[in-house]
Amino acid sequence: MSSPDRIAYWIRNAARTAFVSAYLVVLAGSIVRMTGSGMGCPDWPQCFGLTIPPTEEAQVRWQPHAEYGSGRMILENDSLWTAPADHVSGTSFGADRDSGLWQHYTRHDYAHFNPFHTWVEFINRLLGAFAGLPALILVALTLILGIRHGRWRPLAPATAALLSLGFVAWLGKKVVDGNLIPGSITLHMMGALAILGFQLAALRSAGAPAPRLHKVSRLWLIIAGFVTLAQLVFGTQVREAVDSLVHAGVERADWLNSLPAWWTGHRTAFWAVLGVHLAWLWPGLRSGSPTRWEWAVLALLAAQFATGLAFGLLGMPAAAQPLHLILAVGLVLTDGWLLGSKPLG
């Protein structure tokens, strides 16, 4: 194997690792939403001002004669407080507060501690940080390939993926600071999708073999990708409407009946997603022997339908929520990947 081919081989491995890592972050993020753990850590990047999150209530309550570092957070009087500087507490919280050792946290008014939510959110952040390492290695390898051998094509998508990862991390901080601001959550999801898409583009540009399909219309593939992407965005809007119901104290069993009427458009739009996919899948179906990629798309569509059906029949079960999301993301990315396919024969 020549030197450029060897570097390209490592680029492909790095791109695959980065893709899997980022996909795990998407899964973890959906679990955060499913469990309502988005504000489990009220600050960013630390958690209650700690590198290792608290595990019990006493750690987020004021204690006399205790050492507190700058940025440390506690819950007192149904409010969140932060320490502006290192200090040792006195004999009462009120006296420490009046002397300026504690300041009321004003970026949001979320003042709760649930150790399960805290650690679910913390693990999500750890996975996000881990995803940055292979993304950085991917950029370094593509830069080496360009400098040594003049093959610059993989560098652009690899760099775009790393920049997108940084943007999503910054947006995650803004989401926490704003107590899960509606709209920014959808943008967060789209940023994650961009990361995954750029990493696939880096993989393809580094020489990953193109999938083989029956002779299909490229136009139908493009339409399928856009329709599925629009359906994914629509779904995040439904998710945000559900979050509003949760915030209002509506029980899970009543979510469907309490959602605004427009949400049924998301349910109905699935038939458009199915229709455009069947349009490009038709040559393979007609042949009686679809390729493994065509079978994969059919499986994704069937699983999407099943999880959507579970929402309606079982009252939006929690376990179906992250599965529904990652299937939708998988379908969008598969459509994009297959745009570079080669015909059979």
Can you offer a commentary on this structure?
Helix 1 packs antiparallel against helix 3, helix 1 runs antiparallel to helix 10 (320-338) and helix 6 packs antiparallel against helix 8 (264-287). The model has no long low-confidence stretch (mean pLDDT 90). This protein is mainly alpha-helical. It has 3 domains: 1-39 and 114-208; 41-113, Seminal Fluid Protein  PDC-109 (Domain B) (Ribbon); 210-345, Four Helix Bundle (Hemerythrin (Met), subunit A). The chain has a 3-stranded antiparallel beta sheet, with no helix packed on it. It has a two-stranded antiparallel ribbon with strand order 1-4. The chain is built from 10 helices and 7 strands. The protein has helices at residues 3-35, 93-98, 115-149, 155-177, 184-205, 218-247, 255-258, 264-287, 292-314, 320-338, and strands at residues 67-68, 73-76, 79-82, 87-88, 103-104, 212-213, 342-343.
Helix content: 55-70%
Please count the helical segments.
10
Structural classification: mainly alpha
Low-confidence region ranges: none
What is the number of E strands? 7
How many domain modules?
3
Mean of residue pLDDT? Answer: 90
The biggest beta sheet is recorded as: 3 strands, antiparallel
* Terminal residue distance: 28 Å
Fill in the CATH topology of the largest domain: Four Helix Bundle (Hemerythrin (Met), subunit A)
Radius of gyration, rounded? 24 Å
Proper CATH architecture of the largest domain:
Up-down Bundle
